[in-house]
Amino acid sequence: MNEKEIMENILLTTKGVCDLYMHGSIESSTPNVHQAFNSALNNAIAMQSCIYEQMAAQGWYPSEQAPSQKLIQVKQKYSSAQG
Q1: Could you report the per-residue pLDDT of 4-59, keeping only the tens digit for each?
Q2: Left, alpha or beta for 53 (phi > 0: left; psi -120 to 50: alpha)?
Q3: Nearest to residue 43, comparing CAs of 9, 62, 20?
C-alpha cells in the first residue's frame, strides 16, 4: 500500500467518524452527551480538513472550479424552490 492509498483510507475513515459523531450529537438525549459528541465532531472535522489539505498539496485530491454560469443556475434553482 503506497502513501496515497494510506491517506485515502485515513480520509475515508475520518469522514466516517464525522458521520458517527454528527449522528451521536443530534440523537443525544442530554446536554452533556450532546456537547461531548459535538466537541468530538469539531475535532474530527478539523482533522479531516488537515488530511484533505495534505492530500491536495500532493495532488492526490484535485478539485475543479465550477464554471460561474453553473453556479448561477444552481443558485437560481434553489432560490426559487424556497419561495
Answers
A1: 999 999 999 999 999 999 999 999 999 999 999 999 999 999 999 999 999 999 99
A2: alpha
A3: 20
**Helix/strand/coil for 12:** helix
* Contact between residue 15 and residue 48 where contact means Cβ atoms under 8 Å apart: yes
Instruction: Enumerate residues 6+ apart whose C-beta is below 8 A from 55.
Output: 4, 7, 8, 11, 61
Q: Which cell numbers hold the place of 25?
A: 450529537
Number of CB atoms found within 10 A of residue 41's CB: 20
Q: How many CA atoms lie within 13 A of 48 on its CB side?
A: 15
Per-residue pLDDT band for 61 (boundaries 50, 70, 90) equals confident
Give the Å distances, CA to CA, from 13 to 7, 65, 67, 78.
Answer: 10, 26, 31, 31
Measured CA to CA, the distance from residue 4 to residue 58 in angstroms comes to: 9
